[in-house]
Design brief:
The chain is mainly α. It contains 18 helices and no strands. Helix 7 packs antiparallel against helix 8 and helix 14 packs antiparallel against helix 16.
């Protein structure tokens, strides 16, 4: 349940960052397609945040929330598709835009006045917001559901088809595939929920779809060929601060979502060691791509906020919040000793930054848990088997040491990923 209710919050961060960049783009260029996409992504951001808000651990479901959520789905997808067609053909784009706006107006007129009684589905919302959404749709009259489906079909077809068409025209436009598959994942998530009956599927596909859409969009900035959908701008038009917050939001959402998924699926076996690996990988990719100070600190700050508001409780949460922030700050400080832009390209400096960052995080969390009497039973049993003893000093050294090693390995993989990315961009 923790993981399921937390994923929409990560998606909200990504969608919000996407919306901010689109809005900034529109304010600079004043292009109609930018305005269309900004409105669409604003609706998407509101929708995924409402998914999180309807969880029992946060606010809970209500008729108002559910109306706000369901009535925004059709218009947002329809507008995304209309924006794509507007770029491919302004004439047909205007026709599709007017059609989407007209259908959306009818949808809102009927849906906003409809009486929605969620009492019959309240128990399903207690199980999962995804289950509640699936069952609660039946509370709307048939015309509302029909119009929503129609808008989804129109928008999804135009979004996916337009991106695939762009890639077919020029096979070097790889980011078009990210846009297409982002649309596909969002489209199939709800269908798979009905097939496999797992609420995780809906939110995970929605999250991954948002990540791919945002990734494709950001890749279009760096394309030397120019984006086929016309959504690119010169990278200098997006301020470093906006890029920093956007990238930090996306990567922190990915990092924390992975952390919660791992804690549920693998926690008993890997005991959180993999999370140190992933954190160092994410921090390395962020600082090298930005090449400017405070990117790692920004990611740590955003992650700490998400941890603070996340609807879960565990013995280490109180220590994880400051530890996550400290990990980002230490990573930055190590690289700031000298020329930051040069340091991020040095294997040794990145390794040191990862090691000290992992040390800072581990000292706070491990030290804090030991101070409250946390036994670390699995690690103690391993040490007892290997060395015949599990003294507090040996246990502490083992826990800190393994986290440092995993942090260095994660940073090394991050550098390899970046090398591959640079090759593909050349």
């Amino acid at each position: 349940m923790v993981m399921v209710t937390f994923i929409p919050l990560g998606t909200t961060i990504i969608a919000g960052a996407f919306t901010v960049i689109l809005a900034r783009q529109y304010l600079v260029r004043r292009k109609i397609h930018q305005l269309i996409w900004t409105v669409a992504m604003s609706l998407f951001t509101v929708g995924v945040f409402v998914e999180f808000a309807m969880s029992t651990e946060f606010i809970g479901a209500s008729a108002l929330f559910f109306k706000l959520y369901y009535l925004s789905i059709g218009p947002q997808v329809g507008l995304l598709g209309a924006g794509v067609l507007y770029l491919l053909s302004p004439k047909w784009g205007r026709i599709s835009l007017y059609s989407v706006l007209g259908l959306s107006a009818v949808l809102l007129a009927i849906g906003s006045t409809a009486t929605v009684d969620l009492s019959a589905f309240e128990a399903r919302f207690q199980e999962s917001v995804a289950y509640g959404i699936r069952e609660g749709v039946r509370a709307f009259p048939t015309p509302v559901r029909t119009l929503t489906i129609l808008l989804n079909i129109i928008g999804g077809t135009l979004l996916i088809g337009g991106a695939l068409f762009s890639f077919a025209v020029n096979r070097k436009r790889h980011y078009a595939l990210f846009l297409a598959f982002g649309g596909i994942l969002n489209a199939v998530g709800g269908s798979l929920l009905g097939i496999v009956g797992n609420p995780d599927v809906f939110f995970e596909f929605e999250f991954l779809g948002a990540v791919l859409l945002f990734t494709g969009f950001m890749m279009s900035y760096r394309s030397r060929l120019g984006a086929p959908l016309g959504i690119e701008e010169d990278s200098m038009m997006v301020s470093m601060r906006a890029r920093m917050v956007a990238m930090s939001g996306v990567l922190s959402g990915f990092y924390l979502t992975y952390a919660f998924m791992s804690s549920v699926a693998l926690g008993r076996f890997v005991q959180g060691v993999d999370i140190h690996f992933v954190r160092a990988l994410v921090l390395t990719i962020l600082v090298v791509r930005l090449g400017k100070p405070w990117g790692a600190s920004t990611l740590g700050f955003i992650s700490a906020i998400l941890l603070a508001v996340a609807p879960f409780s565990s013995p280490d949460k109180i220590f994880l919040i400051p530890a996550t922030l400290a990990a980002g700050v230490v990573f930055d400080l190590v690289l700031m000793a000298g020329n930051y832009r040069e340091n991020v390209l040095k294997k040794s400096r990145i390794g040191i930054a990862a090691a000290l960052s992992g040390s800072a995080e581990s000292l706070i969390v491990v030290g804090g848990l030991i101070s409250v009497g946390w036994p670390f039973a699995d690690s103690a049993a391993l040490l007892q088997f290997a060395f015949g003893t599990a003294s507090p000093i040996l246990l502490f050294t083992f826990l800190i040491g393994r986290n440092i090693v995993m942090s260095i390995l994660g940073a090394s993989l991050g550098r390899l990923v970046l090398k591959r990315m640079r090759r593909s961009e050349q």
